[in-house]
Amino acid sequence: MICTWFTPGNFCPDGFSFEQYNQSSDKLDLSLNTKFTSIFSKAYELLHPGGEIVLGACYIDNDSTRQKQEDSYRKMGMTVITDEKDSFTATREGFWSQRFTKEKLFSYLPSIPPSAFRFTNLDTYEYAWQVRI
Questions:
Q1: What's the mean pLDDT when you consider all of the chain?
Q2: Long-range contacts made by residues 15-21, C-beta under 8 angstroms, separation at least 24?
């Protein structure tokens, strides 16, 4: 078994500029997060038969989750540099938290059949899943 201690959404893409990200014009295309794909594809290859990967808490990509993430960062005194058009929340101080749809997880890990994914809600308000692969 391979298990993430923190959320898999904390794998920020290489080269992301927290200092220069412009929330009005520099939208980041996250159709593929190569760092996430590389790490979890390799982890899946390491599994023994019957083994599994447990992704601790995958934040669900919806407006309610985005607002909760933004509020949390602001309460900690950070400057949120993303907006409702982004599928992640980032701060000028270097914090990153990506949100996911099931389809996005499938597309990030195309060598793993969608039938291998199991999603368990971690709450009653569609904030996060535990994902077992």
A1: 87
A2: 16/90, 16/96, 18/81, 18/90, 18/91, 18/92, 18/93, 18/94, 18/96, 19/92, 21/81, 21/82, 21/90
